[in-house]
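hey
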């Protein structure tokens, strides 16, 4: 079943919002996160924020989300992660994983 925005609302999944700070823009963090998410079967999106951080919305299996969040503490080789903040979020039934602007 899909809601008005096209999200599948029949899927029961865990969801988290993650904000990563440090040297995380201009180091392929979004592309790396997308690759990791697809490998783990995590759905959602990742984007750069105006304050220099990277924000992600992650949905799917709890263990897969935890694994991705753990990996995000290090990030791609050129990144220098200072902090990772994780909050519970509402699962929207997103399918796939997109890197936004």
């Amino acid at each position: 079943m899909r809601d008005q925005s096209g999200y599948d609302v029949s899927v029961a999944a865990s969801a988290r919002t993650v904000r990563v700070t440090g040297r995380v823009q201009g180091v392929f963090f979004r592309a790396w996160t997308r690759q990791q998410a697809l490998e783990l079967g995590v759905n959602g999106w990742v984007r750069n924020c105006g304050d220099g951080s990277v924000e992600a919305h992650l949905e799917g299996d709890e263990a897969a989300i935890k694994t991705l969040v753990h990996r995000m503490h290090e990030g791609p080789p050129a990144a220098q992660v200072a902090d990772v903040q994780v909050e519970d979020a509402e699962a929207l039934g997103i399918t796939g994983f997109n890197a936004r602007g």
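The helical segments are 29-40, 62-72. Residues 29-40 form the longest helix (12 residues).
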